[in-house]
Design brief:
alpha/beta, eight-stranded parallel β-barrel, two-stranded antiparallel ribbon, 15% strand, 296 residues
């Protein structure tokens, strides 16, 4: 069975339990959460996350906890030229990893950082330095930090496989690192995942190593290849297309790796139940958006 789900909410009094129930409502076999709003540092205490309740519920419905992915917030930048802001990023990421471990999740996805001063070699060194500090701060934990492939918007680091490899090469405990492969981002970064996904993965394997991939973000793109814009589209309605995304999802080399949809809501309605059904049935529904718009 393919391990696939979507981003789900984690809020209210039931927190993590709400996340699992939302994933179940989409008939998902994987899920991804933020531990709080991705734009701020406000977080509930760990004992308020309803972790035990969520894990018990997972067991009751046969949901594998290994298919839970946490995403780090956007407010951290390990590559910031400000030493104070880099220290904040290290401190907050350390706490997020502790929260991830408390939830029994084994990986946290991280945007590597942004070269604010446009000095990319220095930014890469700062990112690796920060990762080394975070890993040392959490050396008693086994949570992997999954560096996400980026679209190249602004001064994002991680647009190329070579940049990801440079970061990994500078980190001491490489067993604590992995990669989140985002289909929209790599397409927008200029990789031909539509016409030659096997070739792209061969290149990734040569530069980084396919063994590093621990999660996929499955998103279509509103932009042509190489646009460097990072604008997600619903499955089959963008420039990547349904067939190309299906090939990624069901590729024989990555069947055991969780895959997460981050596609946009349609008229404030989550599309995940219908999109996941299209993926399981291997049948594209061109009327998907209209049907979701009409949902009560």
């Amino acid at each position: 069975m393919v391990k696939i789900g979507s981003h789900v909410s984690m809020s209210g009094d039931d927190m993590f339990l709400v996340s699992v129930k939302e994933a179940q409502s989409y008939q998902a076999t994987a899920l991804m959460v933020y531990t709080g709003a991705p734009q701020n540092t406000r977080r509930k205490a760990m004992d308020q996350l309803k972790v035990d309740e969520a894990l018990d519920y997972m067991q009751s419905i046969g949901f594998d906890p290994n298919n839970v992915v946490v995403h780090a917030p956007y407010i951290m930048n390990l590559a910031n030229p400000s030493e104070e802001k880099r220290a904040f990023a290290v401190s907050f990421l350390t706490e997020e990893i502790k929260r991830t471990a408390h939830m029994n999740a084994n990986q946290i996805v991280l945007h590597p950082g942004s070269a604010v001063g446009k000095d990319r070699p220095q930014a890469i060194k700062w990112i690796a330095e920060g990762l080394n500090q975070v890993i040392d701060n959490t050396k008693d934990l086994s949570v992997k930090i999954a560096l996400e492939t980026m679209a190249g918007k602004g001064n994002e680091v991680g647009k190329t496989f070579e940049e990801l490899n440079e970061i990994i090469s500078l980190v001491d405990e490489k067993n604590r690192l992995s990669v989140c492969f985002d289909t929209c981002h790599t397409h927008d970064a200029g990789y031909d995942i539509v016409g030659d996904f096997d070739g792209v993965m061969k290149h990734f394997d040569q530069v980084v190593g396919n063994q590093y991939i621990s999660v996929f973000h499955i998103n279509d793109s509103k932009n042509e290849k190489g646009a460097s814009k990072d604008r997600h589209e619903n499955i089959g309605f963008g420039y990547i297309g349904y067939e190309a995304l299906l090939k990624v999802i069901y590729h024989k080399d990555f069947l055991d790796i969780p895959k997460i949809l981050e596609t946009p809501y349609i008229n404030d309605k989550a599309p995940y139940l219908e999109e996941l059904a299209m993926i399981r049935d291997k049948t594209f529904d061109p009327q998907l958006k209209e049907k979701i718009e009409q949902k009560v």
